[in-house]
Amino acid sequence: MKNITLDTSKAVQFLPAGTVESYESRVKAAQEALENGTCEGSDFLGWLHLPTEISDEFLAEVQAVADTLRSKCEVVVVAGIGGSYLGARAVIEALGNSFAWLVNDDRKNPNILFAGNNIGEDYLAELTDYLKNKKFGVINISKSGTTTETALTFRLLKKQCEAQRGKDEAKDVIVAVTDARKGAARTCADKEGYKSFIIPDNVGGRFSVLTPVGLLPIAVAGFDIKALVKGAQDMEKATGTDVPFAENPATQYAAVRQGLYTQAGKKIEIVANFQPKLHFIAEWWKQLYGESEGKDKKGIFPAACDFTTDLHSMGQWIQDGERSIFETVISVETPERKLDFPADEENLDGLNFLAGKRVDEVNKMAELGTRLAHVDGGVPNIRISMPQLNEYYLGQLIYFFERACGVSGLLEEVNPFNQPGVEAYKKNMFALLNKPGYEAESKAIQERLAQEA
Ligand code: PA5
Description:
There is one protein chain. By secondary structure, the chain is α/β, with parallel strands linked by helices. The chain folds into two domains: about 5-40 and about 235-410, 3-Layer(aba) Sandwich (Rossmann fold); about 50-225, Glucose-6-phosphate isomerase like protein, domain 1 (Rossmann fold, 3-Layer(aba) Sandwich), CATH 3.40.50. The protein is about 45% helix and about 15% strand. The chain is built from 18 helices and ten strands. α5 (about 85-95) links the parallel β2 and β3 (about 110-115). α4 crosses α10 and α5 runs antiparallel to α13. It is globular, with a radius of gyration of 23 Å. 5-phosphoarabinonic acid binds near residues 147 and 205. 5-phosphoarabinonic acid (PA5) binds near residues 83, 144 and 206.
């Protein structure tokens, strides 16, 4: 079986000679700190050997619950936000039909919808409308069990599901994925008798896609979670502490991006794809790297573009704007489908020079042309190549990014496993909403608003 590959040659050329090699001892120390649990945030290293710790029995248990939802629901709503949703969405959208929400006729799989990741009233009202008269189920995912966006949405969905299916039947199609003991989601699941899965204490949200947080929705969507985990297991081996620095794709990626950041002033990393199906992979990656590295007034800003779409919007900036960016392109070698471009006798559009070529051949030339142009324009380019867009290689990609993120955060000398910054908006929101327990904050914020008015 092949592995995903990393090509950093078009990025390293922007660095002084020997820069990447100069990280070797620090990378080794970071790898060992992760392995020995001696780094900051060591309470959250459960993801490190998670793939090889997943047993077949556990996967069978997840699959059995997924099969129940699949047999009883035409729609399953995944309620969750941040790390409690992005990984599942990334894999499901990468593997699913681009028009899944329209292709309803011969559906073998339930339609998977995502909610609990915003507080848009229109979004929720439209979701409620859509679910009317549908046999729907809910996977309520929240590690803390108290996240407002998710909890608010879950209350709406629970009531609607019970109203439409009756409390007893609703109980069979609502599943909780949450902490073992604490939080409202746990209390509710235990009281109502929902099937539930535990998010391990030592796995943080953004590193949790290979727990039931990601595995259950992915299995419900009809994808092969065994193959996903196998890919992650193989990448766990390929990026382990015993793999030499120069041969380890995760440590190479970590070192190159830190080199670009500290030695070449590249403050923004754009993850780009040439397959619209990878859009949410980049969204997942943005959270993983943004929450892990953006702290202590440091960190590469993670951005994302879908090419060639965004070449017609962001392309100008990337080619010609401030030279503070580098690009990481995720490329898929072979598409799953084959579509040849037809010849046309009249050739009115002048495209006969493409006749007989696969559409992907055009896409690949767009990719190569973009790479050459952007490198010429001063944008370092890292290329990650996936042989195919399937469960196995997505499992590899997920673990590759996780491992590299842990190492990269430690090279940056931050704790990659906490996210203190995300609490600030919540505190203000709770104060503004007069949440019980926030009386002092409510008073302070009202005074501040009065002063600012
Ligand atoms: O990575 C993280 O820890 C966060 O993004 C969380 O996943 C997110 O805030 C959702 O939290 P919870 O699962 O507790 O609802």
